[in-house]
Amino acid sequence: MRSFRDTTFLFVSSRSADTLGRVERRWLGVMEALIQQGATVFLICTPKAALEEPARKLGVTIAPYKLDKLNLIRTRSRMRKYLRRYRPALAHSTGYEADILLRWAAKDLPVRVVSSAICGSWPPRGMGAFDSWIRRRLERDSLPRVDAFFADCADLAERVVAFGVPPNRVTLDPPGVSLPRVAREAALPFSAPGGAPLIGYAGALQHSRGLLVLAAAVPALRAVYPDIRVVVAGEGPARARLLPAAADGRIDLLGRVESVPAVLAALDVCVFPVAEEGTPTSLLEAAALGKPIVASAVHGIADLFDDDAEIALVPPGEASVLAEAILGVLADPAKAAAMGERARLRVVDQYSSTAAIERHLGVYRKLIATLQ
């Protein structure tokens, strides 16, 4: 297997949030593997971005530079000088500004260009109809420069192909989790609320997680299991909207917890009533732990697991159907255990972070070989 010794790679991210995105978490593992194989790795990112410090600790050379979307021409010129100076064999970007600027800057240069996007974030949207039209037009016009595109769900891969990227350049790269980390964190102590059965959610409290639907399903659950406890663990902007359900006793709102996997491991059923396409990382953690899961049948979840065999899928936004599915899982413990085990094996085989890193390295090898 070809190593990456004496090969230079460049990663470019325009994410400015104070937390790592899914692609950036994946990149850290990829960067570490490249460095271990003798590659030189550079990173262009927003100053003080969440990716900067962990990448630096791996031995990545950082170029903190804000990708100025208000002056694309100047930023493109600076990035093009960067590419000419360090001559990476491959440059990998994520985020609208990073993608567009890298593709423009790499024009006519001997560098392989790779993009990554997650379900729900592509094609890019702007502030209003005109801004969205401009962004999509720039995306469409620059896509021919892409040598490989990583998409994290089948629906996104189909959209990318419809935009004009040849199918052989699109790689399906489903979300992944670190199995050793999940197992380690699941073993941390967690004091579960009393009552049986115990169901609920743990993870980021985003509005897109559809947790109000879970709260609305509780009366139907208690009609069958009066002592059922429903917990919601985590922090985020959706917490305020859940306070009434906590006040009237429908849910236990736990707030920030030391370990999300430890909460998931304590649940009899893990529930993910998400309202938008995408895959919560904690859903994959629950699957890695072999827990029975009830989730919305949205792109990014339905693409990853088989309904009724590995997890139970329901239409998003329907509290009565969600309650019925949860009750069905609770009513058949043997089937629920088998379903959880099949989901666990699916994660081990296809969605572990190790498999994802090898998937990236395999694409990189093929692209770099064509430069020889």
In short:
With 372 residues, this protein is α/β, with parallel strands linked by helices.
Fold topology:
Elements: E1 8-13, H1 22-36, E2 40-45, H2 52-58, E3 61-64, H3 72-86, E4 90-94, H4 96-105, E5 112-117, H5 129-142, E6 148-151, H6 154-162, E7 170-172, H7 179-186, E8 198-202, H8 211-224, E9 229-233, H9 239-247, E10 252-255, H10 260-266, E11 269-272, H11 281-288, E12 293-296, E13 312-314, H12 319-331, H13 333-351, H14 353-369
Parallel strand pairs: 1-2, 1-4, 2-3, 4-5, 5-6, 6-7, 8-9, 8-11, 9-10, 11-12, 12-13
Helix pairs in contact: 1-14, 3-4, 4-5, 7-10, 8-12, 11-13
Question: Can you offer a commentary on this structure?
Answer:
The chain has about 375 residues and is α/β, with parallel strands linked by helices. The protein has two domains: about 10-175 and about 355-370, Glycogen Phosphorylase B (Rossmann fold, 3-Layer(aba) Sandwich), CATH 3.40.50.2000; about 180-350, Rossmann fold (3-Layer(aba) Sandwich). The protein has 14 helices and 13 strands. The chain has helices spanning about 20-35, 50-60, 70-85, 95-105, 130-140, 155-160, 180-185, 210-225, 240-245, 260-265, 280-290, 320-330, 335-350, 355-370; strands at about 10-15, 40-45, 60-65, 90-95, 110-115, 150, 170, 200, 230-235, 250-255, 270, 295, 310-315. A seven-stranded parallel β-sheet has the order 3-2-1-4-5-6-7, with helices on both faces. Strands 10-9-8-11-12-13 form a six-stranded parallel β-sheet, sandwiched between helices. β11 (about 270), α11 (about 280-290) and β12 form a beta-alpha-beta unit. α7 packs across α10. The longest helix is centred in the C-terminal third of the chain and has 19 residues, at about 335-350.
